[in-house]
Amino acid sequence: MNYEVLEVVIENNVALVTINRPPVNPLNSTVFKELSELFDVLEEDEQVAAIVLTGSGEKAFVAGADINEMNDLDIVGVNSMNKKSRAVFTKIENATKPVIAAINGIALGGGLELALACDLRISSEKAKFGFPEVGLGIIPGGGGTQRLQNIVGQGIAKELIYFGETFDAKRAEDLQLVNKVVAAEEVEGEAINWALKLTEKPSFALQMAKTSINAGSNVDLESGLTIENACFGSAFSTEDRKEGMAAFSEKRQPQYTGR
């Protein structure tokens, strides 16, 4: 497929997806539409085992929503845009394949919400983060009020959203918003390295681990344990489980097939 604002490169079972709206890659209805369509394609592509999502250039991952587009919308239009953003972020969050955000620069507002929808986040040491929405008379509308507090807790989430101040990569790492901070020139390469490591894992076991973590985070402990048990049983029934345990016993490298 040809995309207007996305660049897609698939190599070694890793899809590198770049949002290309220079200079700061703002989110608009076209980005949401194309991301939604692309993730449907990647979901069905058996040659893709992991996905890296980044922004073009060195300045920004995604510097938020396209304010120029939003400013011309009425309440019906804004609700429609929010519905689209929510749907695509949820699709990314629930993709059966691991998604890694390579945060190469500014990640503000909707850009940070997009990163939070990914499974893992590698950040440039030069990246800046923040939720500036309250200062614009709105609030985060793409899942930020919910996903943020799931990671940093309610008190810190309120601080970051209420004050809307930007913060650096070190604080993002301290808050566990990002998994790792590296030099700016290493962000994409490190994210791809992580993705390549994941392609070596049994894909269905990864899928079940992700399902158990994601679904379990929204329910009480007992319900979460029930979800975990079901996912464990599903993973245990696979050929890859048999191969993994056999390889462990035989002291050799496993040969996984995704079955």
TrEMBL record:
UniProt entry tagged with the keyword Lyase: yes
Highest taxon of the lineage: Bacteria
Entry keyword Transcription: no
A GO term for molecular function: isomerase activity
Pfam families per the UniProt record, alphabetical: ECH_1 (PF00378)
GO BP terms: fatty acid beta-oxidation
Keywords on record: Isomerase, Lyase
Family: Belongs to the enoyl-CoA hydratase/isomerase family.
Name this polypeptide is given: Enoyl-CoA hydratase/isomerase family protein
Organism: Salibacterium salarium
